[in-house]
Amino acid sequence: MSAAVAVQTEGVRSPVALARLVRVAELVLRAEKARTALLSVTLVSRRRIAAINKRHLAHAGATDVISFGFRDPAGAVIGDVYICPEVASANAKRHGVPVREELMRLVVHGTLHVLGHEHPEGDRRTASPMWKRQERLLARALEA
User: Fold this and answer.
1) Average pLDDT over residues 71-96
2) Are 113 and 69 in contact (CB under 8 A)?
């Protein structure tokens, strides 16, 4: 596998070391057998993710993760994942999980979307094959 993964922040603090987030994304790419990949993960503010959400998805307000991905003609996976740690923290509290775990879950989730995985909206989301795959990969990442 040939993968280049970059994780950066735009004026926000990360509760997880950026190097660990790189390893989480690489784990997903390997597990999903992405032979060639170029992935960027950016941690952004609530305001920035709300702007991305409105501009690109026509949705109002902040969200936890937004992903954009495609395959080039040679089959390489190219994608961007935007994550809002502030929303991730609120979600972690609501679901009773550590914020570090939730942030890693969002890296897995966003990377799976870049790779083309989809899930239904609403109540069926957590029963979907993508969600189950996400949770298995997250468990592996947490063990590492």
Assistant:
1) 95
2) yes
Q: What is the pTM of this model?
A: 0.95
- What DSSP character marks residue 11? S
Cα gap 99→32, rounded to integer Å = 25
| pLDDT at 144 > cutoff 90 | no
Give dist(CA 37, CA 111) in Å, integer: 11
Q: Is the pLDDT of residue 1 over 80?
A: no
Beta bridge partners of 67: 81
Helix (H, G, I), strand (E, B) or coil at 35: coil
CATH number at residue 60: 3.40.390.30
Provide the 8-state DSSP code for 117: -
Residue 66 structural domain? 2-143
Q: Which residues pair with 42 in a beta bridge?
A: 8, 82
